[in-house]
TrEMBL record:
It comes from the Bacteria. Gene3D superfamilies: MFS general substrate transporter like domains. SUPFAM superfamilies: MFS general substrate transporter (SSF103473). The keyword Transport does not apply. The chain crosses the membrane at residues 25-49, 70-88, 100-120. This is MFS transporter. Keywords: Membrane, Transmembrane, Transmembrane helix.
Length: 147
């Protein structure tokens, strides 16, 4: 699952880095990133909940949200710093190379995050189905009702 969403994000940032001079490429890159981010955030919440005990679901989803917010904030500030550090000589206007560098760095970060996500232990990699829960005491299971 994480690999699939990393493969969605990566082309979006590489499109921005390589073809940011064409309007259509920017639209395509934005569409790909929008689909990738939306899909990844939804899947990440499910992944996090699936690898913890049910009694800890609230804690884990809260930590997931906090870490996502911190990551987004840090990523945006790092990208803004890179863009602002490269200006057109004699002005305060950001140069194209600042944007290109920020997009390349974002693509690399997505690649690294994908590799890290693939190392996460848990039920994601276990395809075996869990046994059905046993019925409460005094309630017959379907197998007992129909021999």
């Amino acid at each position: 699952m994480p690999d699939r969403y990393g493969r969605i994000h990566h082309p979006g940032f590489t499109t921005y880095a390589g073809a940011h001079g064409a309007e259509g490429a920017i639209y395509a890159g934005s569409a790909v990133l929008g689909i990738g981010v939306g899909s990844a955030f939804a899947a990440l919440a499910n992944l996090v909940v699936s690898v913890v005990d049910r009694s800890r679901t609230g804690e884990v989803t809260g930590i997931n949200t906090i870490m996502r917010t911190i990551g987004g904030s840090l990523g945006a500030q790092i990208a803004a710093s890179v863009v602002a550090s490269r200006t057109i000589p004699g002005t305060q206007i950001p140069a194209e190379s600042g944007y290109t560098t920020a997009f390349v760095m974002s693509a690399i970060a997505v690649g690294v995050a994908t590799l890290v996500a693939l190392t996460v232990p848990g039920r994601l990699w276990q395809r075996a189905t869990a046994p059905a829960p046993s019925p409460p005491p005094g309630v017959a299971s379907p197998a007992q009702e129909f021999p």
